[in-house]
Each structure stands twice: as structure tokens, then as C-alpha cells.
Amino acid sequence: MMPSLTIAREELRKAGEMNPGPWVKHSENVAEAARLIAENCNDLDPERAYILGLLHDIGRRFGVSYLAHVYDGYHYLLDLGYDEAAKIALTHSFNLSKIEDYIGKFDVSEEKQEEIKGLLSATALDDYDYLIQLCDALALPDRIVPLEERMMDVKSRYGTYPQEKWDRNIWLKEYFEGKMGRNLYEALRIEGAGI
């Protein structure tokens, strides 16, 4: 089951009141990027893409966290009955489908890490998972940017960005360009991005 757009917006609004921060605007930009890409793909629903983008980081409603936001968001949305959004909350941080590619602190117990590993290995990814993974790597709090700019932003904050994860983001960009039949940055209306 999927929440309506109205419910998704309200969930993000309430979450932003509980834990204010740039993550809320980042989520809105992920949603907008997902909508714009989906509008250019025959087999993706722009509204569904937007909703999933809005809710991908909803685990941050519980406070400042790192890996915990994935675990918390997954369980929060699952408890509400929003299985598809819960799946995205889980998969968005792992474009290689393994816990080791998470960038940031592992602020959950070993038991919860094992649960995440099990969930990832049992989850078949689809184009919505890929889409939100890509859009998460395109969205800053103030704007949608080229992949390299966002990945360098993450690298400057955390001191690392694994090459395998970087390469996967490039693959995701090319995958969606193939689906759209056009340049990603053109579809996202990013000016001066080497279109």
C-alpha cells in the first residue's frame, strides 16, 4: 500500500517539526528529481516517484542519526502499512545492496545491522529503488545538482566516497538516460551541467 500525496506531505511536515534540519528540503528535492525523471519514462508513475522521494529519509523524524534513519524509517513506514515506501526507506542508502556501502556512522546495534543485511539480501530491487538511489545522489537541500557535485559534497563531509558506489551512481545515471532517451541533466533542468 502507498500513502497518498497529501499524507506523504503531512508525514514529512510533521517529521520536520520533530527534527528540523536540511534533510527536509533534501527530501523535497529528491522527490522533485524523481518526478521529473519519471515523467520521461513510459513505465514509471511520476506521483508515486514523488511520494517515495518525499518519504525516503522519514526515519530522520526520530532525531539526528546515520544508519539508524534507514532502520527507523523502514520500520516506521512498515508499521503504517506503507510497504513500498518502507522498502525505499531501506534500499535508498545501499545502491550496491550491501550494508558495507553505507557512508556514515553505524549507529545501530549489531542485531539491527544483521536485520538490515538480511532484509537487503532478501529484497529484489526495481526501478523505483534505482530511481530514489539516483535522486538521493542528485539532491542537496537547496537544489538538484550534477552527480559529481553531490558525491563530492558527501566526500567532503565524511572524508570518503567508495569508488564502487561512485561508479554505481554513474551506472544509474546512464540507466535512466537510456530509459528516458535523453540527457539526465536536461530532464532535471540543471543549467550548465555539461549537457
How would you describe this structure to a colleague?
- It contains ten helices and no strands.
- The longest helix is centred in the C-terminal third of the chain and has 18 residues, at 163-180.
- The protein has 195 residues and is an all-alpha fold.
- It is 62% helix and 0% strand.
- 39% of the residues are buried.
* Strand segment tally: 0
Major sheet attributes = none
* Residue runs with pLDDT of under 50 for 5 or more positions: none
Percent strand: under 5%
Please count the helical segments: 10
Fraction of residues in H or I helices: 55-70%
In N-to-C order, the SSE pattern is HHHHHHHHHH
Q: Judging from the principal axes of the Cα atoms, what is the shape?
A: globular
Concise structural overview:
This protein is mostly helical. It contains ten helices and no strands.
List its traits.
mainly alpha, 62% helix, 10 helices, 195 residues
List the SSEs and their pairings.
Layout: H1 5-18, H2 23-39, H3 46-55, H4 67-79, H5 83-91, H6 110-122, H7 127-136, H8 147-158, H9 163-180, H10 184-187
Helix pairs in contact: 1-3, 2-3, 2-7, 4-5, 7-9
